[in-house]
Amino acid sequence: MKEVFNTASKVIITCNKRLSPFLQEEITELGYEIKRAFNTGVELHASINECIRLNLNLRTASQVLYEIGSFRANDPKELYDALVKIDWENIIPFDGYFTVTSNVHNETITTPLFANVKVKDAIVDRIKDKKGVRPDTGPDAHKTVIHLHWMEDRAEIFLDTSGETLAKHGYRKHPGKAPMLEALATSTIMATKWDGKSPFINPMCGSGTLAIEAALMSQKRMPGLYRMNYAFMHLIGYDEEVFFQERRLLKDKTEKTNLPPIIASDISKEAIEIAKINAQTAGVEHLITFEVCDFAETTVPTDPGVIMFNPEYGERLGVHSKLELTYKRVGDFMKQECKGYRGYVFTGNPDLAKKIGLKASRRFEFFNGKLDCRLLQYELYDGTKD
Predict the structure, then answer these.
(1) Cα dihedral: 355, 361, 364, 365 (round 10)
(2) Cα distance between residue 216 and residue 283, in whole Å
(3) Positive or negative, the Cα torsion across 226, 232, 235, 236?
(4) C-alpha span between 164 and 231 (Å, rounded)
(5) Can you give the pLDDT at residue 110?
(6) Cα(51)–Cα(60) distance, rounded to whole angstroms?
(7) Does the predicted TM-score (pTM) go above 0.90?
(8) 52, 53, 33, 51: which is closest to 43 by C-alpha?
């Protein structure tokens, strides 16, 4: 078996639907060449040591998958026969622990769980045959994670170097009501092309995710600084010095001066308390001004920047008159109090969006969970457009 930490192979980096353009932007900025991009991720060529760097630096990704084999498999027996030939004893410690995840579309498989069991059996049988003992297995992704991608008669087996998803950035201990996933929050901010230097205003901030991600981005503070366990740490050949060297680089590039004003407000005192705790855990509480107030009373600095709302979407069928009024007030507030800013409203309710009463200059498509959403951009001109 090749020594995976220093040998480049096919790497698939996954992300939630519609986040791929932002993931591509991040990967290109890190200096990697993208071989292929698709709706839920990208493909590149890298070693696991390079995957360590990717895991620590990416804000919009979900998993970093390193391929260790691909083969034809028409049915579970062929899958098992191919997998048992891989020298797993050189990858997974015999006294270790692993879990299996999969993405399977094969007519002989009615449930992915059955495919997972075949993968687990092949690995356990191989290691037991070579070492006389077997590693533990289970559902938790806190140690080694093996991922099977099996489409029709084509199977690929990956080491999931991430384990727990990268889309959660590790600081949010109190999610609050209907929280926005961190990777999605980052992507929406990237969509605004905010420069990280001008003001970022987030009325209706809820549990504070948008404001916190903005603060982290302005500091160039990466998610890897909040996490001390990844699946790559549980593979044979892992050198912790590579990980700690990468963390030192992250610390060194963190900006501490000339940071922009970031203001987060919410009418709920409880929401602001939760947001403050999350910001404190992220180490950015001192960079955000929190205000308990109606959104229309939010402080808006005179220097123009970005103002972003993530209001309630309401029920999918039928629109609450109270929310209609809220959306209209959001439009009025942006038009009257935010001249010179670029305004953004993230919503999953197109009917309510019409009540804003302003013409969107751009629309970005996102999913929040399974809900089809839009980030609407408004140019809030000071005076007339001309």
Answers:
(1) 50
(2) 9
(3) negative
(4) 8
(5) 85
(6) 15
(7) yes
(8) 33
